[in-house]
Design brief:
This protein is an alpha+beta fold. The protein has two domains: about 10-130, Rossmann fold, CATH 3.40.50.10330; about 140-320, Tumour Suppressor Smad4 (Sandwich). About 25% of the residues lie in helices and about 30% in strands. The chain has a 16-stranded mixed beta sheet that branches. α7 (about 160-170) packs across α8.
Length: about 325
């Protein structure tokens, strides 16, 4: 990890709702530690998700070189579209560098990049002169060409994992990654299979039933589950993990292995790698712990059950985000 600048002006965006609405209190400690490191801090409190894009646009216009996101995966998710926007003639040296101080529930993006999850070490990493180009995921809907491209930092997922996300987001207790564990166990009691049409790169699409689909830019989702254990944020590729339609007892045996990535060794699990994936399904799509806003609103074809099946095109965008403090490979 590179050394910090001796003195710098940094802009900090905080999400007060991060970590179960404890973001503001935790952010005060972050600001204090930045000041102790000799930084002049411009603090911006996020007052709504629609404000992020405009705020980052203003900071870019003011030639802010270092932006620190103090929040969880949800804040990174909201900020991504504005952060990856750039003119064709924009040089990498002119792009905004992002530091991340994780204050959320899952903090899977930091974990996947190898960044510290403890506050003091995370602040030091966010000020580092060592900068790495990181891939991101782009999601488009062919049936809604006017809709803005959506972005994801960690894992796009649907099926069982999406339902776990929905349940976990609605829970008040327990805190942290344990919330996802409890939500997972609860969803196991009502295991449901989804139907998908998947197209890998230029291959003809195939139809399949699956309990879980995960498309990874980084390794983790759900507060530390290594669902895509071999995913790399540096290779310009998507790791796609599929769990077949199996009995509940079999799924119960496979699922605990996701914490160390050993689930991919089971016969029920398939792993593919691609640059572009088309996904057509009635299942809601989730990314970075947030439900994507578009699938339910898009106009798609009718599946056999009468629900609206929507096609999403998922792509890897190589090296579009500059992140500070990532340890070398």
């Amino acid at each position: 990890m590179g050394a910090r600048h001796e003195a710098k002006r940094v802009s900090v965006v905080i999400n007060p709702a991060a970590g179960g609405n404890r973001g503001s209190g935790r952010a005060r400690s972050v600001v204090a530690e930045l000041a102790d490191a000799g930084c002049t801090v411009d603090l911006h409190r996020l007052d709504g998700p629609d404000r992020v894009h405009g705020l980052i646009g203003e900071l870019r216009a003011n030639q802010v070189q270092r932006l620190i996101l103090a929040g969880g995966d949800g804040l990174v998710h909201l900020a991504l579209p504005a952060l990856v926007e750039q003119r064709d003639d924009e040089r990498e040296v002119d792009r905004m560098v992002v530091g991340i101080v994780p204050l959320g529930t899952g903090n899977d993006f930091c974990r996947g990049l190898g960044l510290p999850t403890k506050r003091a070490q995370a602040v030091a990493a966010a000020l580092s002169d060592s900068v790495t180009s990181v891939d991101v995921i782009a999601i488009d809907y062919p049936s809604r060409p006017a809709m803005a491209t959506q972005m994801a930092a960690t894992v796009l997922t649907c099926g069982f994992s999406g339902r776990v996300n929905a349940r976990a987001n609605a829970m008040r207790f327990p805190s942290g990654g344990r919330r996802y564990t409890v939500a997972t166990l609860a969803e196991m009691l009502d295991l449901q299979t989804g139907h998908y049409r998947l197209g890998f790169d230029d291959e003809p699409p195939t139809e399949l039933d699956s309990l879980l689909v995960a498309v990874g830019n980084t390794r983790y989702f759900g507060g530390g589950m290594a669902v895509c254990p071999d995913a790399s944020f540096r290779d310009g590729l998507l790791d796609v993990v599929l769990v077949a339609d199996v009995a509940t007892l079999t799924f119960a045996r496979v699922l605990p292995r996701v914490f160390n990535g050993r689930h991919i060794e089971h016969d029920a699990v398939t792993v593919r790698r691609c640059r572009r994936l088309s996904v057509t399904t009635t299942e809601p799509l989730w990314a970075d712990g947030e439900q994507l806003r578009s699938a339910a609103a898009a106009t798609g074809s009718q599946d056999a059950g009468g629900d609206t099946a929507v096609e999403a095109v998922v792509r890897a965008l190589p090296g579009r985000l500059l992140v500070a403090g990532i340890p070398p490979q």
